[in-house]
């Protein structure tokens, strides 16, 4: 019989004498393949009491981590997956804290994680919550507090989630032994019960505790903390390792997780229950197929990597990252990435099926559409981008080929290949690869060409190019961007006012687009919604934005007029000379 990782676990969390409970604890013990590939997660967080939204922060961190961790690719290591998610969560908390609460302490919390996979415990820790290991009657603290003591009655956290854009995570891994017991606690427990007292209480555990027994023991320890004048929230979890897999299983699993690339797929072929209908698109990097699940009859899209990149580790990492990024977003204006009906045996991912054409194809069919037809399209693209930005994600490759539009005008962003998630890039091993421009010439913001990292306004620039192109059927600077543009080359670019091409575009609308296309990122609108507002509401600042002399608006007419006047003058002079 196969040996599997198994634990018993109990918990207790209460507000204590406070009016509200800013602590949060949770765990997840999967009962499927995730138990082998991802393991068990136990999490505890303590929202900072002086934080405006400490409770919200602790809940968001614990729930967000557990949800995201089990959606990461199986090929990612525990360390890589956890650190990437924690960094992304930290950036989100920091941004929300400053945006919603205008405070450096808006959303701040500790976060301590114990991930059990195979025969190893992985510990990730930020703050002053703790993890102890109880083995052979001895209690050992496995984390160190990130707290600075100023005086007997004054101290402060020097590391926490949401307190700074840069996140320094403590990580360690320790081997597991059957019978090991772990205690996770917030400071409402360990600040009021000494290590000696906790050791004494842990020694009172029965030899074969079940979940109910552990819950009761957690309650009793919490009561002891209250009896010792605890004036804080009280939260703890206790778990016991009941069974471990064979030591060599981890090495066997690593090989099993190296999924092979699918071969070229033909109509009628079946892969993991999906029957191929037809190939929709193929490039040197990927293939896209329309498919139908043979049991549910659900129509889907399969995206597979090209076998040309079978030995390219960076490409595989990007492909997996693309799937994970897509799963994080839930918006009617963004393509939905689905969870396969069964565990994939090959490397691919599944998305919802869309009926329609790319925006590029739509633009060819509608070369100069009326303004009232363009605005709803731009509005839906902006809402899709907003879904990325709310999760601290940048699209970085917005272009007409990556947008689908249905026959009834519904618009969706469909590509995640260049998505950047805040806080993750710093964990990349090869920064040169990360800094490569992943977007497309003419749609990528100028800052990328100059080696800068960009931001939400970089996506806004791409949306500005698309808006201009929709209205005018050409690029805003009249020609392709240089492939490796310098600052001097970029400074020579001249925006062509829409009035030169399409007189139906109002001056104020053209002014809004020109602002979004500013070569200086700081001169653009604050976000995509401000740009959208400027497109829909005449801004007095833009009313004369594109008022240009006739010589610039219609030089041919000017020169024809000058020539005609000159001819008349010459004829008059000739008449008097002859006379």
Description:
This protein has 579 residues and is an alpha+beta fold. It folds into three domains: 6-252, Phosphatase 2c, domain 1; 259-352, Phosphorylase Kinase, domain 1, CATH 3.30.200.20; 357-548, Transferase(Phosphotransferase), domain 1 (Orthogonal Bundle), CATH 1.10.510. It contains 18 helices and 23 strands. It has a six-stranded antiparallel β-sheet, with helices on one face. α10 (371-390) packs antiparallel against α16 (528-536), α13 packs antiparallel against α15 and α15 runs antiparallel to α16 (528-536). The model is unreliable at 247-257 and 426-435 (pLDDT under 50).
First and last CA, distance: 121 Å
Low-confidence stretches: 247-257, 426-435
Shape: elongated
Largest sheet: 6 strands, antiparallel
The structure class reads alpha+beta
DSSP helix count?
Answer: 18
CATH class of the largest domain: Alpha Beta
Q: Provide the gyration radius in Å.
A: 30 Å
Strand percent estimate: 15-25%
- Work out the number of β strands: 23
Helix content: 25-40%
If you consult CATH, what is the topology of the largest domain? Phosphatase 2c, domain 1
Q: Give the averaged pLDDT, no decimals.
A: 87
CATH architecture of the largest domain: 4-Layer Sandwich
CATH superfamily of the largest domain: PPM-type phosphatase domain
Strand order within the widest beta sheet: 13-14-15-16-18-17
Structurally, the number of domains stands at 3
